[in-house]
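Reopening: structure tokens for the uridine 5'-triphosphate complex, inputs below.
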Amino acid sequence: MVSGMTQSHPRISKAVIPAAGLGTRFLPATKATPKEMLPVVDKPAIQYVVEEAAAAGLDDVLMITGRNKRPLEDHFDRNYELESALQKKGDAGRLAKVQESSDLATMHYVRQGDPKGLGHAVLCAAPHVGHEPFAVLLGDDLIDPRDQLLKRMVDVQEQRGGSVVALMEVTPEQIHLYGCAAVEPTEDGDVVRVTGLVEKPDPADAPSNYAIIGRYVMDPHVFDILRETEPGRGGEIQLTDALQQLADDEKVGGPVHGVVFTGRRYDTGDRGDYLRAIVRLACEREDLGPDFRAWLRSYVTEEM
Ligand code: UTP
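Re-run output (same inputs, fresh job):
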């Protein structure tokens, strides 16, 4: 028998991955390649994100793409030429690696057209998502595969309804780089109630040190709000502005809760963080790690 809870809250199965930004911080690498395709060790950053969605049980993935969408689509599609060449060589290991990305999830794509901001990118998902709660994973935000975040957010949304954002404590000097949340505690240590949001505040105006990072579980009412949302900071339609409205109105898509994340997260659209992600993940790899760590140790002691 299906419980009332399950009937009113269908299990979340759809993930939306906005990947249509211009990636200007990473030029010239991103002139003809989406930043999400830059490799982190030996996989493009976006593959970690799709793997994370699939691991949390979200196997219907809609990617919002921009002008350079081709490599993204190709990466998650079959490559018969490469597969048959590897088959002929009997190279089962590499064949598995090629097939891995096309077996992860059912992939869908929609073009954003003009990159008018993250809120606008999410709105492009409305016809595909329909009336169900759904997850949003930013394609350039990498959560370490060993740190569970999305699954916890899906559980919190299913228990509490409304929308859920991921929060991470940053220093006062860093808060101007993020959306920032005013919060109240709840009875769950890692869950807070979000009472207000402000996009990229000056440190003096920041209501907390809680930064919004690139994972969301959204109530579909957000689409109605985004349709009415005027361009905000930077002339872009801001997802944070729509979330503020959800937080204000419990009956229409709210409340908004935050899951406080204390694990490892990298912004692969930022050059410094991108390098840190590669070094850390490479050091921890069983195949590459031992040699790479030895080299890194001697490089740091002898040359720095
Ligand atoms: P960013 O704020 O990192 O912007 O977007 P950006 O344009 O991609 O990169 P920079 O700052 O110029 O280097 C956050 C996320 O939202 C997506 C991006 O692809 C990224 O995953 N995004 C942003 C869109 O899909 N569409 C937009 O119009 C803006």
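Residues 1-7 have pLDDT under 50 and may be disordered. Residues 18-26, 64, 112, 115-118, 120-121, 138-140, 269 surround uridine 5'-triphosphate (CB under 6 Å). Marking as resolved unless the reporter disagrees.
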